[in-house]
Amino acid sequence: MALADGTGLEARAVVVATGPAAAAQLLPGLEVPATRTVSTLYHAAPVPPLAEPTLLVDAERTILNTAVLSQVMPGYSGDGRALVSSSLLGGHRAGQEAAVRARLAELYETDAGGWEHLATYAVAGALPAMVPPLSLSRPCRVAPGRYVCGDHRATGSVQGALASGGRAARRSSPGGATISGLPGAGRCALGQRR
Ligand SMILES: Cc1cc2nc3c(=O)[nH]c(=O)nc-3n(C[C@H](O)[C@H](O)[C@H](O)COP(=O)(O)OP(=O)(O)OC[C@H]3O[C@@H](n4cnc5c(N)ncnc54)[C@H](O)[C@@H]3O)c2cc1C
């Protein structure tokens, strides 16, 4: 395996666990899905609009989801106000902040007029597009000794990335590797080949 600093490494197996664009560069010929941009807006509210660490999913899809981050991680607010994070598909659009604020008022059943808009971050390539027909489990072995994993090989989510990573670990460790420390998973024996 050739490294960027000009040196090399001997490896029985190489697992490429990058996003789709970098994976396509590192593994020429690899088919990768199109990606979606996700924008996240941050607001500061005088009081928490929801006093619990819960992710609200917008069934009307004006936004994807929203959470009072400071209820999840109190240290994320430096001044006692509530930090509200809200994500939606796509990049910046005219009138976006006002539309999101209006939807947040409905979702949290509160007056969001006095909230301070802190920032909006648009992340290009945030998620792989999941268009039909969708394969929930794409092969992780691309060539002898070469493997690929990530959300773009499964579903566009942390869960998909973990599932894909588990598959790549099982396929690339015929002797039976072991992973420990996954939240809630205990120890997970990875000796089984698929
Ligand atoms: C704003 C936003 C909100 C999200 N919200 C949710 C959510 O609520 N729930 C959910 O389940 N998922 C959510 N996701 C999606 C989730 O974050 C991803 O699906 C998941 O992180 C994908 O994991 P991954 O390991 O496939 O890729 P990544 O987490 O992208 O990891 C790839 C890694 O490869 C590294 N890399 C890139 N190029 C190279 C290279 N050439 N060499 C070495 N390393 C390289 C990158 O630095 C990165 O660390 C969200 C994503 C975004 C952007």
Bound molecules: flavin-adenine dinucleotide
Gap between N and C termini, in Å? 25 Å
| Run of helices and strands | EHEEEHEHEEEHEE
Neighbour order of strands in the largest sheet: 3-4-5-2-6
CATH fold group of the largest domain: Polyamine Oxidase, Chain A, domain 2
Mean of residue pLDDT? Answer: 89
- Uncertain parts: 178-194
Structural class: alpha+beta
User: Residue share in helices?
Assistant: 10-25%
How many strand elements? 10
Q: What would CATH call the architecture of the largest domain? A: Alpha-Beta Complex
SSE inventory with pairings:
Layout: E1 14-16, H1 20-26, E2 35-45, E3 56-57, E4 65-68, H2 69-72, E5 82-89, H3 96-108, E6 116-128, E7 141-143, E8 146-148, H4 158-172, E9 177-182, E10 186-190
Parallel strand pairs: 1-8
Antiparallel strand pairs: 2-5, 2-6, 3-4, 4-5, 7-8, 9-10
The structure holds flavin-adenine dinucleotide (FAD).
